[in-house]
Amino acid sequence: MAAFSDKMTWKRWTAAAFLILLIVCGVSITMFGRTHSTGSAAKGDAVIYLTVKSGMSAGDIGDELVRKGILDHKFLFWWEVRRTNAAASFKAGMYAMKPGMTTDEVLEKLTSGETTAARFTIPEGFGVREIAKRLSEEGLVNEEEFLEKARTFVPYSYIEEKPEIRFACEGFLFPDTYELHEDADAESILNMMAKDFDERFTPDLRARAKKMNLTIFEVVTLASLVEKEARYEEDRPIIAQVFFKRLALGMPLQSDTTIQYLRDTPKEDLSLEDTKADSPYNTYRVRGLPPGPIASPGMAAIRAVLYPADTDYLYFVADRQGHNHYSTNYAEHQRIVEQVR
C-alpha cells in the first residue's frame, strides 16, 4: 500500500508541476505578445490594410495578420484572444496596420472599431509595373500576383489581345485617386481601374475617335506616347500632331519612350545602339504605332490625341527642363538638338 501511495503522490506532483509549467508558459507568452513586437518591425512603417468581415473567426484573422506580415506568429494572437475573450468585441471593417505591431496594439484596433479607408493615387504615365509596385508598397496587393493577372486581364472588347503585348490591360488602368472601403485583391482593383477608364471615355469621345477613324485602342496607344513625351500641358496637342503627320507620311515615330518601355530601368539619353533594339515596340525601326500602349495616359493626353494642334512640325526634342522644341525639317532639328542637349 505504501508503494501504491507513493506512486499516486508522484503522479499528483507531476500533474501539478505540468499545470504550473503551462500557467508559467501562458503568462510568459501573454506578456511577451502584449509588450513586444516581432521581427516584422524591420520591414519599416509601411501601412498594411487588413479587412475584418462579419463571421471571421479569431483563427481566420490570425491567419491574415501573419499572411500580411503584421504579426509573425498566429499562436500569440490566438492565445491572447482566448484569454481575454476579445473576439466578442471585434468590429468589422478595414484597419490600417503596420508590420511589427504587438498583440495588444492589434487587439486595441480590432476592438475599438478604428476602421479606415485605403486611399491610393496612380499618377498619369504609370505603366502596369509601376502600378503594381505602388499598390504593393501600399500593402494592398502582392506585386507578382497583380502582374500575373494583368498579363491576361481584358475586361472590355476594345482592348486588343496581341502575343507581343506584355500586359493586356496596359494603358487601360486609369490614373486616378481611389478609395477602398473593404478588402480588395488584385483582380478587384484591376476591375475598378479599368471601369474608371471605361466611364471616363465618354460617348462623345468615342464618337470623336470614330470620326477620326481611330479605334479606342489606337487612341490610348498614341495617347500613352504623348503622355510619356510631354511634361507640360501645352506640348501634348503639338506632339500628338507631330505623330499624326509622321504616320500619314509613313515616317517612323522615333519615340524614345517606346525604347524606354523595353528597359528595366529608364535611361536619360538613349544611345544609337539602343535604337537598334529588335522589338515591335522600337519605333525607330518599326513604322506605325507600337503593338499597344506603353503606360496609362490621363485625360489631357487622350484629348490631345482626339483634338491635336494644327502645325507643320515633324520633329521635336525636349531640353533638360522638359520643354519641347519643334522644327519642320531635319537640319533645323539637328541644330536645336545641339543647343538643348
Kindly summarize this structure in a few lines:
With 341 residues, this protein is mostly helical.
Describe the structure.
This protein is mainly alpha-helical and 341 residues long. It has 3 domains: 35-116, Endolytic murein transglycosylase (Dna Ligase, domain 1, 2-Layer Sandwich), CATH 3.30.1490.480; 122-199, no CATH class; 203-340, no CATH class. The chain is 47% helix and 8% strand. Strand 5 and strand 6 form a beta hairpin. Helix 2 (58-67) packs antiparallel against helix 3 (74-84) and helix 5 runs antiparallel to helix 6. The longest helix has 34 residues, at 2-35. It starts with a helix and ends with a helix.
Radius of gyration: 29 Å
Provide the low-confidence segments as ranges: 1-5, 15-43
H/E element order: HEHHEHEHHEHHHHHHEEH
**Roughly what fraction of the amino acids lie in strands?**
5-15%
Instruction: Count the E strands.
Output: 6
- In DSSP terms, counting alpha (H) and pi (I) runs of 4 or more, how many helices? 13
- Helix amount, in percent? 40-55%
What characterizes the major β-sheet? 2 strands, antiparallel
Any idea how many domains?
Answer: 3
Oligomer: single chain
Main features:
13 helices, 3 domains, two-stranded antiparallel sheet, Dna Ligase, domain 1, 341 residues
Secondary-structure topology with pairs:
Elements: H1 2-35, E1 48-52, H2 58-67, H3 74-84, E2 93-97, H4 103-112, E3 118-121, H5 128-137, H6 143-150, E4 177-180, H7 186-200, H8 203-211, H9 216-229, H10 236-249, H11 256-262, H12 299-306, E5 315-318, E6 324-327, H13 330-340
Antiparallel strand pairs: 1-2, 3-4, 5-6
